[in-house]
Amino acid sequence: NGYTNNFEVGNETRLMATLQTTLDGEIRQEDVTDICAWVSNNDLVPVSKGIVTAISSGQKATIYANYNNNLTSNYINISVNDKVTTRLEITPHQIVLDKDNSQQLTVKYYTSINGVETSWTDVTMSCTWEYDSSKLHLTNGKVTALVYDATDYIVAKYNGGTSNTVTVTINPYVPEISYVLEITPKNIELPFGETEQLTVTKY
């Protein structure tokens, strides 16, 4: 029994064969999946003990079970489709910021068919984000550091998928130091051929 649709290449599914008997008005059911002879009309969709394997995409098969060379089950139609997978990636994977500085993140949604990446879409503006809002501000992928000397982690979510984790390192506070240089003496008068030592002092 059962009908399989959207069966992806490389996957397996299990069918079950149930023998139903009626004795003195009592209905009994017995699982005979493992002892039936299973038949598929397509070698690229083989079946054994009820387990159907999809070897090649675009294939169709009709499968049935035979019990005791006597009883034949109903027919099951199998369609094998391409295996479509997706992944979500944020770049760059790591960033370092000073407080009040910003950097733009990009989120791409990749689609693969039968293990080969075929396309990607920029979904930066459509994601939801997970991060610590006490440390960072994040809008449309632009992340800004709100504090000094901290670490946070950013994750994006889109269409049921979760991205890689981006590590954000915020630099500690470094005080600005300024210096004044003074040359002394400020005014000198020298006769021709004589010298005088100047001194440079840093304040």
Describe this protein with a few key phrases:
single chain; 203 residues; mainly beta; 5-stranded mixed sheet
Structure write-up:
The protein has 203 residues and is mainly beta. The protein has strands at residues 4-8, 12-14, 18-23, 26-31, 37-40, 47-48, 51-53, 60-67, 71-72, 76-81, 84-91, 94-97, 102-104, 106-113, 116-122, 128-130, 136-139, 142-145, 150-158, 161-162, 166-170, 181-184, 199-202. The chain has no helices and 23 strands. It is rod-shaped. The relative contact order is 0.13.
Q: List SSEs in N-to-C order.
A: EEEEEEEEEEEEEEEEEEEEEEE
Reported for the largest beta sheet, the result is: 5 strands, mixed
- Strand proportion: over 45%
Low-pLDDT residue spans:
none
Task: Give average pLDDT, whole number.
Answer: 91
| Number of H/I helices | 0
Q: Kindly state the number of beta strands.
A: 23
Q: What proportion of the residues is helical, as a percent range?
A: under 10%
**Outline:** rod-shaped
Structural class: mainly beta
Radius of gyration over alpha carbons?
A: 36 Å
Could you give the distance between the termini?
A: 91 Å
Question: Summarize this, please?
Answer:
By secondary structure, the protein is an all-beta fold. It has strands spanning 4-8, 12-14, 18-23, 26-31, 37-40, 47-48, 51-53, 60-67, 71-72, 76-81, 84-91, 94-97, 102-104, 106-113, 116-122, 128-130, 136-139, 142-145, 150-158, 161-162, 166-170, 181-184, 199-202. The radius of gyration is 36 Å and the shape is rod-shaped.
Write the layout of secondary structure elements.
Elements: E1 4-8, E2 12-14, E3 18-23, E4 26-31, E5 37-40, E6 47-48, E7 51-53, E8 60-67, E9 71-72, E10 76-81, E11 84-91, E12 94-97, E13 102-104, E14 106-113, E15 116-122, E16 128-130, E17 136-139, E18 142-145, E19 150-158, E20 161-162, E21 166-170, E22 181-184, E23 199-202
